[in-house]
Design goal:
By secondary structure, this protein is α/β, with parallel strands linked by helices. The protein has two domains: about 240 residues, Type I PLP-dependent aspartate aminotransferase-like (Major domain) (Aspartate Aminotransferase, domain 2, 3-Layer(aba) Sandwich), CATH 3.40.640; about 120 residues, Aspartate Aminotransferase, domain 1. The strands form four sheets. Strands 1-9-8-7-4-2-3 form a seven-stranded mixed β-sheet, with helices on both faces. The chain has a three-stranded antiparallel β-sheet with strand order 12-13-14, covered by helices on one side. Helix 1 packs parallel to helix 5, helix 6 runs parallel beside helix 9 and helix 8 crosses helix 9. The chain is globular, with a radius of gyration of 21 Å.
């Protein structure tokens, strides 16, 4: 395959799956009003942290009786604090189908050593059999596999009534997909995904049912950074902006900027529509190619944010794993060298392939400008790896 080098480049060639590209029109001037050089516990500092909480809850449509708070260590910290606090209170099922969901399963099995744990596994590109989930147990699921491009197919995948808690890692789904809040109990995400915020801060949302379980107490001692409760029960100050540890008020200002932008373009519906347009553009391109396919073969489980692709050309499939990784590195490196697209290789633990972030802060025009560069780089790489 030989393709001429394209002449058009994406205006913003940033396709990383985290941290993700800033919202259209962003400049550092957006942070000029940041509350800097002051304590985050001052009245105005708390007010800005609380504004992130209230704007997030409203934009996402979180029920009014839920508690929403800012926690340390991005989505990873948010998930871990919940697993350490709740793991072991009752039997637990965990879905494992890509890197991060696999990490949650590993931590529950090997670090927390839960005695009553079932790990429901599937390879990259697939979901475990959801029919095997026992909803009378606590269930840990990742709504969207950032490293596999596979998502839960429908809000109705979770039953409306369930005895256990549904704990959902939603970091690459929040602000881009429909999340059935009324069918879940704990939801976590971070600022660095669909709104293009800065890293290191996570968020957690708790249903009344989850709050009750937290107040019943953990089966193990918890470090301060994981404690959402105190002697009186839930530490409600955390959910008003009194964070466990010191947050970056510069990152807070950036989060507020992203939330205000989302509101200005039409809220959650507009964010979802932008992501769906990005996926549709990639799909139209894939459908006309014989060398590339979606990692998720089932269209209903295909992510509109972490768009993961596999190379299916015979010459590529004949390579060993190291050769495939080298070929993808050569391909994505050629595009980056032309300033036509950055961070396009699949996640290090995933099968060698391509990954394009399609979240709401990405303009579809930039996706459309990128795709011819993929064809060009593929042709260059095919020639390099097949010439004897």
């Amino acid at each position: 395959m030989s393709v001429s080098k394209p002449s058009r480049r994406p205006a913003r060639p940033f396709f990383s799956s985290g941290p993700c590209v800033k919202r259209p029109g962003w400049t550092p001037e957006a942070l000029s009003g940041a509350f800097l050089g002051r304590s985050h516990r001052a009245a105005e500092g708390r007010a800005r942290l609380n504004e992130v909480i209230t704007r997030s809850a409203k934009l996402l449509g979180i029920p009014a009786d839920w508690q929403v708070g800012i926690v340390p260590a991005s989505d990873t910290g948010a998930v871990e604090m919940i697993l350490w606090a709740l793991g072991g209170q009752r039997g637990m099922d965990v879905l494992s189908f890509e890197s991060f969901s696999g990490t949650w399963a590993k931590d529950l099995r090997d670090s927390l050593k839960l005695e009553d744990l079932r790990v429901l596994e599937a390879p990259y590109g697939e979901l475990p059999d959801l029919e095997q989930i026992d909803w009378s147990r606590d269930v840990v699921l990742t709504w969207n596999g950032t490293t596999s491009g596979v998502c839960i197919p429908s809000p109705h995948s979770i039953p409306a009534e369930h005895e256990g808690l549904v704990i959902c890692d939603a970091t690459s789904a929040a602000f881009a997909m429909d999340l059935p809040w009324e069918r879940m109990d704990v939801v976590t995400w971070s600022w660095q995904k669909a709104l293009g915020g800065e890293a290191a801060h996570g968020m957690v949302a708790l249903s009344p049912k989850a709050v009750k379980r937290l107040e019943e107490g953990s089966v193990r001692p918890l470090p301060k950074i994981f404690r959402l409760t105190n002697k009186k029960g839930l530490n409600e100050a955390i959910f008003r902006g009194d964070t466990i540890n010191t947050p970056s008020m510069l990152c807070v200002e950036d989060a507020l900027d992203g939330l205000r932008w989302a509101e200005s373009i039409g809220g959650l519906d507009a964010l979802k529509a932008r992501s769906q347009r990005n996926l549709a553009a990639v799909k139209a391109w894939v459908d006309q190619r014989d060398w590339v396919r979606f990692l998720s073969e089932r269209e209903e489980t295909r992510s509109c944010t972490a768009i993961c692709l596999k190379i299916v050309a015979p010459w590529f499939e004949a390579l060993d794993d190291a050769g495939k990784t080298a070929a993808v590195k050569a391909m994505t490196g050629a595009i980056a060298a032309e300033d036509a697209g950055y961070d396009l290789a699949g996640y290090r633990d995933a099968p060698a392939g391509l990954r394009i972030w399609g979240g709401a802060t990405v303009d579809v025009e930039d996706i459309e400008a990128l795709l011819p560069w993929l064809d060009w780089a593929y042709g260059v790489t095919e020639k390099e790896f097949t010439v004897s």
